[in-house]
From TrEMBL:
Designated name of the protein: Ig-like domain-containing protein
InterPro entries cross-referenced by the UniProt entry: Ig-like_dom, Ig-like_dom_sf, Ig-like_fold, Ig_I-set, Ig_sub, Ig_sub2, IgLON_domain
Lineage: Eukaryota, Metazoa, Chordata, Craniata, Vertebrata
Ranges of residues in domain Ig-like: 8-99, 108-188, 194-280
Superkingdom of this protein's organism: Eukaryota
Amino acid sequence: LLSCPSNPTVDSAAPCHHAASGRDGQHCWCYVDDKVSKAAWLNRSNIIFAGQDKWSLDPRVDLVTKGQLEYSLRIQKVDVFDEGPYICSIQTKQQSKTSQVYLIVQVPANIYKVTEDLTVNEGANVTLSCLASGRPDPAINWRLLNPSAEPLDGEEYLDITGIMRNQAGRYECKASNDVATPDVKYVNVVVNYPPTIKKTQSSETPVGRMGTLQCDATAVPTPEFEWYRDEKRLSNAQGVNIQIIGTNTILMVANVTEEDYGNYTCVASNRLGVQNASVFLYRPGTGRDINGSAPVSQSLWLLLACFACLFFKC
């Protein structure tokens, strides 16, 4: 008297369908033969349809009767509140029968709250949050979108203890539950750290030519630079030209004189710290500045020569 498609199976508590929330035209099928005198659809104990008479006040619900044998219930724009058991009940002259199906409503993953972009100092403890909803509950995964973009250990909350400068960047939070395309949000993390002078360039310059000294530092925020000769701060008004481009600074000494040879100090600073380094302007051929300090390469040769002399007892 009553039959339904094999997928889904219409047994007690079997799924009518895994429906996505908001989807149009979700069906619970029911087929009857010509011996049925009465038929009805119920949701729990509430009558939805009795025969062709609609008892439900929900405008989203209607009957589908394609031919004399089909008596199916259709729900438009399915909502999570529609989930639950539905009963197709029929009556013949001899007996009554019911078949129950269960509508499972799925909801795509949705990230509804994520940490805003933030700036922290190196060494701080950081927690990034990513909260998502969905049915079934979504899985949440984190990645730092550096060149490797490897997965990170964390779900709703990603804890970073003692964050380092190489952990700065764009963090991706992905929530997925296989109902629809995963939802993705991003958090940009800036890590502040004090300056480190990573490269300097001295200059071997003859009298009358231009000497160029260079200093390159890394820092966040971008460092400020100053140049000193002995204890005196240099400026563009003192016969030199200072250029600052991002994390690099160049000191140009035009028309070098004997008095210009010597030690110069490059100072890089931001609000987290200061670092300085010595840079030399020296005469060609001497390999040393006016204070007698040799460049590193010549100092190494002299050191090796001393060791050789001691070894051979010269």
